[in-house]
Design brief:
The protein is built from 17 helices and 17 strands. By secondary structure, the protein is an alpha/beta fold. Bound molecules: ligand FNR.
Length: 457
């Protein structure tokens, strides 16, 4: 990866997901950083080749959420930013993911409590030995470039000393946010400190922190030159209007939202992430009639409808559905399952496989707690009442546990029922099994479940 003369989309939590990164590249960014992803999230994720979306997905096995999604269009241009305090964990992540990214960056600038308490982000600048150990371990053992993103320190000589120490680990470049950990975005950045860093080190320096005065591409170059830096990295100005990367000048935000929505639909981005990013673009406009209509929307289709884009979203979602796309909650261990069987004299776990589910009636329903205000409306309560009223034996639940995921089978009458989804705890698994039974018996309606998000249409 060449870090010279590059215009870069900065790492931004929630903003730097695939649609925004692709949008930035399409408008003229040369390199795009992911949002910061914490090491253990990547470690417990599973890599899938998604043939339907043509993406590589790292999926959280416990809830099916996408931890990191990438695709061919960003090959050689996507830098994954890692939040870590451990050389060991960072290396495990690096080895797991290096085939899918262009470079690995370590976050050494985040001033949030969550990061600092975990010894991550800016805490690493105050624990230089650990910071160097992480970088050196990665540099020595990975096949891709390793970088870090730092803030400046209150004392000038400390900043220079720290950056030189970090450089000594063999990193390929360093991004510098020209503010100290206590300075907020409203405070002016310190380009003169970056200038001194540039003279003190040999590696490329990426200048960051100038968004308040950046309204077009030429302003980015101006900030880079004021810092004397090799490249420039933009966060907030791109979050507000990603088309600022365009050499021809920025576009109206309606165009940007339209293009962003198209990418969100094409890459099946989650509605909550899509909504967040659009809120960041709309800012004050959320107070308008259109803004309020947008805030009321929940599904991707409803969000798209606000910009008259609903039919494209419907068409695409149907296409993916027919192709058999995995639902976001459909993360399912593909390995054999073990169930504790007290009948075995050895008390050993008995190996079971999908045979266990033979003859079990399944539906794609999941239990979403917020849908139930009153305990008596819970699927298990409803099912219990149904069995009592119909003189049936009360429902009997059997729970299977694997990889911190749970699935329940409920016996009602002569039939067994189970949701095809894995749930994050035993209670939820039983509730979703009960919900499956209620659906099969016609006690709850399919439309109602689709409406409240418990079922994928
Ligand atoms: C950030 N920033 C940030 N930095 C980082 O290293 N990792 C991250 O995940 C995030 N997340 C993040 C989210 C959001 C919404 C914002 C606005 C910022 C900091 C960011 O990358 C950058 O350093 C600062 O915003 C300063 O650059 P600008 O905004 O002046 O270009």
């Amino acid at each position: 990866m060449d870090y010279r003369n590059k215009i870069i989309l900065a790492p931004m939590v929630r903003v730097g997901t695939l649609p925004m990164r692709l949008l930035a590249l399409s408008y003229g960014a040369d390199i795009v950083y992911t949002e910061e992803i914490i090491d253990w999230k990547l470690l417990k994720s599973e890599r899938f080749v998604n043939d339907i979306l043509q993406t590589i997905d790292y999926v959280d096995k416990t809830d099916g959420s996408i931890v990191f999604r990438t695709c061919n269009s960003e090959i050689g241009k996507v830098v994954l930013q890692l939040g870590t305090a451990s050389a060991d964990r960072a290396l495990q992540v690096g080895k797991k993911i290096q085939q899918d990214i262009a470079a690995l960056d370590i976050n050494m600038g985040c001033p949030k409590d969550f990061s600092i308490k975990g010894g991550m982000g800016v805490a690493l600048l105050y624990d230089l030995e650990r910071a160097k150990c992480i970088l050196k371990t990665l540099v020595d053992n990975l096949d891709i470039p390793v970088t870090c993103k730092v803030r400046i320190l209150p004392e000038f000589h400390e900043t220079i000393n720290t950056v030189k120490e970090l450089e000594s680990t063999g990193i390929a470049a360093i991004a510098v946010h020209a503010r100290t950990k206590l300075e907020r975005p409203r405070h002016p950045p310190h380009p003169e400190v970056i200038r001194e860093i540039v003279s003190a080190v040999k590696i490329p320096v990426i200048a960051n922190g100038g968004s308040s005065d950046i309204h077009k591409r030429a302003d980015m170059l101006k900030f880079r030159d004021a810092c004397g830096a090799t490249s420039v990295m933009i966060a907030r100005a791109a979050q507000w209007n990603c088309s600022i990367f365009r050499p021809e000048g920025p576009l109206p935000i309606e165009n940007v939202i339209h293009e962003y929505l198209r990418l969100s639909v094409d890459y099946d981005n989650s509605p909550s992430n899509t909504k967040y990013c659009i809120q960041m673009i709309l800012r004050d406009l959320q107070e308008t009639k259109l803004g309020r209509q947008f805030l009321d929307s929940q599904t991707l289709e409803q969000i798209c409808e606000v910009w008259n884009f609903g039919s494209y979203c419907r068409k695409k979602q149907l296409e993916y559905h027919n192709a058999g796309i995995r639902g976001r909650r459909q993360a399912c261990p593909r390995v054999q399952l073990y169930i504790k069987d007290d009948s075995l004299p050895t008390k050993k776990a008995k190996t079971i496989d999908s045979m266990l589910f033979d003859g079990v009636i399944e539906h794609n329903v999941s239990f979403i707690r917020v849908n139930y205000n009153d305990d008596k409306d819970l699927p298990k309560s409803k099912l219990y009442i149904y069995t009592v009223k119909n003189n049936l034996k009360i429902p009997k639940y059997e729970v299977i546990h694997k990889d911190k995921l749970f699935k329940a089978i409920v016996l009602v009458g002569d039939n067994k029922y189970s949701s095809s989804f894995w749930e994050k705890n035993k209670k939820y698994a039983e509730q979703s099994a009960a919900l499956t039974c209620l659906l099969q018996l016609g006690i709850v309606k399919r439309e109602e479940l689709i409406q409240n998000g418990s079922m994928i249409s």
